[in-house]
Amino acid sequence: MSLPPPPLPKLNVRTKILIMFLALALISLMITGYVALFTITDVARSAESSSVNLGREAIDETTTALLESAEDHLVQIASDQAEIANVLFEDTETELVILAVQAATLQNNPPVQPVIPSYDRYNPPADPFSAVLYRLAPGITIPPGSPEFRRSAGMDDLLRGAYVADANLTSVYLATDSGILRVYPWQNLTDETYDPRERDWFTGAKKTPEVYWTEPYPDAAQHGLVVTSSKAIATPDGTWVIACDVTVDVINSAFLNTSIPVNGYAVLLASDGDIISRPGLSAGNLSWDQPFSQENIFESSNPALLSLGKNMTAGKTGVERVWFGRREVFVAYAPVRSMNWSFAVSMPVDEVTAPVDATRAKIARSTVEAGQSIDQRTGQIAVLFSALFCIILAIVIALAVYLSRIITRPVEVLKNAALALGHGDLRHRVSLSTGDEFEDLGHSFNQMAADLQQNIDTLQRTTAEKERYKKEMEIAKEIQVTILPESMPVIPGFEVGATTIPAMEIGGDLYDFIPVTGDRWGFVIADVSGKGVSAALYMALCRTLIRVCGTEQDNPHDVIRKANRLIYEDGRSSMFITVFYGVLDPKKMTLSYVNAGHNPPLLVRGDPPGAEILEGHGIALGVVDDVSIPLSSIPLEPGDLIVLYTDGVTEAFNAQNEYFGEERLVASLCRNTSRPVQEIMAALLEDIREFCGTAPQSDDITLILVRVP
User: What CA–CA distance (Å, rounded) separates 292 from 299?
Assistant: First the structure.
């Protein structure tokens, strides 16, 4: 059984007329113009081909020469700029070394009375450039008449001299192990918590006999991103550190932007791939105590850029071509040898070849003109054929154009509307009154555009809200991670382990280890009421206040009482925090503690092991203005295991809404009490996960384990 023939396409009358006229035109042209046009076209093509080939060869040779010249020029620029940067950095290091020598000389001579006055941060001078700022680190008290204070003041005129001598410097300053800070020019360092001894430029300088350079970080005096060079000096009173700041903006203007091509782009790269300076690099809204996310060339997914980074960090000199998106770029680089850094300058390849492209266009125009000249000379041969061709073609084109305009006008309208819609103009509408399918299609198009506009508006709002919330949560989580201790304290004779697992992106639990006088350690575990961002912010406040009080007091009772008063005064909400704070004395083998409404810790001891509850009760912090919680103390024995935890451990529930409870907690600890604390903690968390199964985590889980081997 044969299949029926496929149906013929449906064509309206206008389309059939247009096809008929076009067919007649084609037949006429094929009969009358074949011989003449074939001969003329062959001659024209031969002449044009020769012209195009000659032009292409010339363009290729010119392009190659230009690219080679551009590469040599960029390498020379990179080498020159790297040498300039090398000299400038060496000058800065020389100035620091001179200041360090002068500071060392002061130690063996009577104190020098400075000419320039000095002011503390509470009494700013009328002109900051006429005075030096002096301040002490938090919690430090040094009389102005003390020998070290007077010797440090003897550096004031030298700091000012170094600043005046080098226009690239933002500030020059001196910091001591005892907590003295002297800065020229006077600057508004108002943050109470700022301690120069904790900054990277201070600690890094103490670790090396050479000049120490930091990578960019947000300046505490609000100068934006700065790079600090520092030099340590040993004195009878401890280490002094001389330092000076250079802003990234100054590096860009003084080191990178001179002799760079108009559309060039310069970068200063550290030996580990971190970007020290580039146009547009800034700290944004970051404050001095927030970490600056350093850009690194090795984080790129571009293989060519990774290869470039390897060559630059290896101290090589050269030039490479790298694709950035759809644009190819020359990148020339040379080492800054004094810093073990590398300088690079880039330039788009298409800007180098722009003159060649212009020449290519001229050659193309000349080729067209040559072809026209050939056509004119050969046209006399085909005058008769051309006349007949033109007459028939003119008649056919006129009729075809007239009919096609009538037929294709609605199509053109819809096509233009589709282009407008594709370019994002969702408000564009069409108006057709043809009385046929095109009019119906116009109505459908208008309805589609309206629906699409509404859907896109809704999608944009929803996407923006989700992205903003997600970004805020990521930032909050990063900040909270930095608040918790980076590592466990090393206490002779004890094993210590801790962990926290938030129920949401961020949590309200905290733990901390506070060094106390006499080689003792304070242990803090706390749980803020509530969850989410508000609990995390309240947790950060409480952690700071408890830590400050813990470093000032050695009695847990006094620490918690003072911390409660500060939390109560600073608290502006109905939130509170339960806290267990204990002080471990390795020498006396005792644990002194107070419990402010927190889950009582467990003491696991004996053979077979059993668990005891560390008694002690008090009200949570932040509820009333004054609390007085009795101090408890227990002796410790070898094999003892102290377990501090939050209610997220015992109140973890499974799919049947059953709590994990204290009995399962004690059983898990007793099974594993002889193992190291990290393994005990891992086993306990695994028991909780197996118990909960598929049920979601309902509360933050925080643990601190202290074991006497």
Answer: 16
H-only helix segments in 107-227: 147-153, 156-165, 200-206
As given in the structure block, the two tokens for residue 378 are 């050969």
What letter does residue 79 receive in the DSSP assignment?
H
Residues 532 and 677 in one domain: yes
CA angle centred on 377, ends 374 and 381, rounded to 5°:
120
Q: Tokens 């980074």 appear where?
A: 309
Once rounded to an integer, what is the mean pLDDT over residues 487-513?
Answer: 88
Beta pairing class for 225-235 and 212-213: antiparallel
Q: In what order do the strands lie in the sheet with 641-645?
A: 495-501, 701-707, 641-645, 602-605, 610-613
Residue 225 has pLDDT above 70, yes or no: yes
Provide the token pair at 39. Answer: 């001969």
Asked whether residue 191 carries a pLDDT value surpassing 60, the answer given is yes
Say if residue 232 is in the same domain as residue 278.
no
Lowest mean per-residue pLDDT among 51-55, 350-354, 385-389, 694-698: 51-55
Tokens describing residue 172:
């020059």
In a domain, 271, yes or no: yes
Please compute the mean of the pLDDT values over residues 275-279 and round it to a whole number: 76
Q: Are 116 and 157 in contact (CB under 8 A)?
A: yes
Residue 466 has pLDDT above 80, yes or no: no
Domain tally, the chain: 3
- 363 secondary structure, DSSP code: H
Q: Is residue 256 over pLDDT 60?
A: no
> Which long-range CB contacts under 8 A does 257-261 form with residues at least 24 apart?
258/81, 258/84, 259/77, 259/80, 259/81, 260/77, 260/81, 260/345, 261/74, 261/77, 261/345, 261/347, 261/351
Q: Which amino acid is at 691?
A: F
Indicate if 162 and 276 belong to the same structural domain: no
609 is written with which tokens?
């092991």
d(CA 168, CA 186): 17
Q: In whole angstroms, what is the distance from residue 500 CA to residue 503 CA?
A: 10
Strands (E), 140-283: 171-176, 180-184, 212-213, 217-218, 225-235, 238-247, 265-269, 275-277
Token representation of residue 8:
């013929």
More confident residue, 406 or 292: 292
Q: Which CATH number does the domain housing residue 284 bear?
A: 3.30.450.20
Co-location of 213 and 134 in the same domain: yes
> Which of 295, 317, 352 is at the close of a domain?
352
- Say if 259 falls within a structural domain: yes
Does 541 fall in a domain?
Answer: yes
CA distance 581 to 268: 48
3-class SS of residue 635: strand
Q: Which segments of 357-508 are extended strands (E)?
A: 495-501
444, 544, 445, 459: which is closest to 138 by C-alpha?
Answer: 544
Residue-wise pLDDT tens digits, 625-662 = 899 999 999 999 999 999 999 999 999 999 999 999 99
- Tell which of 352, 380, 395 closes a domain: 352
Which residue, 309, 240, 239, 312, is CA-closest to 82?
312
What is the distance between the alpha carbons of residues 606 and 670, in angstroms, rounded to a whole number? 10
Average of pLDDT values for 434-441? 73
* Residue 529, both tokens: 């009421």
Centre a 10 Å sphere on the Cβ of residue 50 and count the other Cβ atoms it contains: 12
Q: What is the mean pLDDT of the chain?
A: 82
* Secondary structure of residue 239 in the 3-state scheme: strand
Same domain, 217 and 296: no
Question: Once rounded to an integer, what is the mean pLDDT over residues 97-116?
Answer: 87
Structure-token match 């007239």, residue found: 402
> Do both 194 and 341 map to the same domain?
no
Tell me how far apart the alpha carbons of residues 489 and 256 are, in angstroms, rounded to a whole number: 45
| Rounded Cα–Cα distance for residues 450 and 429 (Å) | 9
Q: Which domain holds residue 583?
A: 484-707
Opening angle at CA 347, ends 345 and 353, nearest 5: 150
